[in-house]
Structure to design on (351 residues):
């Protein structure tokens, strides 16, 4: 089969590799029909994730057709169409049983990390992929949900909802500020209303992304990097500050923006992946009763979000900006990696 193989920092190739097969009784093998690229894949390509070794097939998002199942798989059959969750869950270890499969202990060598696809085992940017713990890590897709909607439930929508909205403790009537209107930030914008947010403020440097945020449910948009951006946001709350500030970029400056925006007693939910240290002004924050949360997605909300998509109540398709054939994955990486010029959000690759 063909797959996108990592050959060290800055080097990936679409090349022939051996087909995967069932190894453990709980495995399934899935033919990839649709996949996508995540910002984390770009971090890997830059060498920021040293656990990814040379020869690894990248990718942790996908929708496909089951072509082989292990003897212990009960909920899936050959021919079923399924979403591949970015988190692999054994379902029985202490973390999976407590609702935190992001720290699943079962996969050999995982060291308490449920994100193994395209990280510690071969991933989804390939024609075929082996899925460990298939019963807990694959979600059958209703026939009327298109692939390019379903694939966005592998990672970014559960991430935005769980780590931004749920961890941020969004409540009915809240004002939520989302700093960073990239794909994950837009997923927060789209799901904040599920917990009753009255105002959702998208903040970004890019007018195009702010325009997309409006289509996904933002009630207000603010162009950052200009004088007066902070006062513009605070004016929406009579100067008190927002109830929840969501950091969705992963750089120190945007985290600092969130601590400026949030009201006393509010929450800062960090969704962005940070590659360098961030200053925490605890001497100022403690007296304001600020709650700060971080987290790796568990994908425990994937089934619920899929039901909303099936009923056309969650406009996930608004995040798709570019479409490619699977064989054009190198061009797709170039497009996604140059998002400032190409205005890429999510690029979808289909068989």
């Amino acid at each position: 089969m063909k797959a996108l193989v990592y050959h060290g920092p800055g080097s990936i190739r679409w090349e022939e590799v051996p087909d995967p097969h069932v190894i453990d009784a709980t495995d399934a093998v899935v033919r990839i029909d649709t996949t996508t690229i995540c910002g984390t894949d770009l971090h890997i390509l830059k060498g920021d994730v040293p656990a990814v070794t040379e020869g690894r097939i990248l990718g942790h998002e996908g929708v496909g057709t089951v072509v082989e199942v292990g003897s212990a798989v009960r909920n899936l059959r050959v021919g079923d169409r399924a979403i591949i969750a970015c988190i692999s869950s054994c379902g029985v270890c202490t973390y999976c049983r407590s609702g935190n499969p992001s720290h699943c202990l079962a996969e050999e060598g995982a060291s308490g990390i449920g994100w193994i696809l395209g990280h510690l085992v071969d991933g989804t940017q390939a024609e075929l992929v082996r899925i460990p713990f298939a019963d807990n890590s694959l979600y059958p897709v209703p026939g009327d949900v298109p692939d390019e909607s379903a694939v966005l439930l592998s990672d970014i929508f559960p991430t935005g909802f769980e780590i931004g909205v749920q961890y941020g403790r969004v409540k009915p009537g809240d004002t939520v500020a989302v700093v960073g209107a990239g794909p994950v930030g837009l997923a927060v914008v789209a799901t904040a209303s599920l917990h009753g947010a009255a105002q959702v403020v998208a903040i970004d440097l890019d007018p195009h992304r702010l325009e997309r945020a409006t289509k996904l449910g933002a009630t207000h948009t603010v162009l950052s990097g200009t004088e007066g951006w902070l006062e513009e946001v605070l004016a929406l709350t009579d100067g008190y500050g927002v109830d929840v500030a969501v950091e969705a970029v992963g750089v120190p400056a945007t985290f600092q923006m969130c601590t400026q925006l949030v009201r006393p007693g509010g929450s800062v939910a960090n969704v962005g992946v940070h590659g360098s240290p961030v200053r925490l002004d605890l001497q100022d924050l403690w007296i304001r009763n600020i709650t700060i949360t971080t987290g790796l997605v568990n994908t425990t909300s994937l089934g619920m979000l899929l039901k909303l998509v099936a009923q056309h109540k969650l406009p996930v398709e608004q995040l798709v900006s570019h479409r490619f054939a699977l064989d054009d994955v190198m061009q797709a990486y170039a497009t996604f990696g140059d998002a400032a010029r190409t205005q890429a959000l999510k690029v979808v690759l289909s068989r």
About this structure: The mean pLDDT is 96. The first strand starts at residue 2 and ends at 6. The CA atoms of residues 202 and 221 lie 5 Å apart.
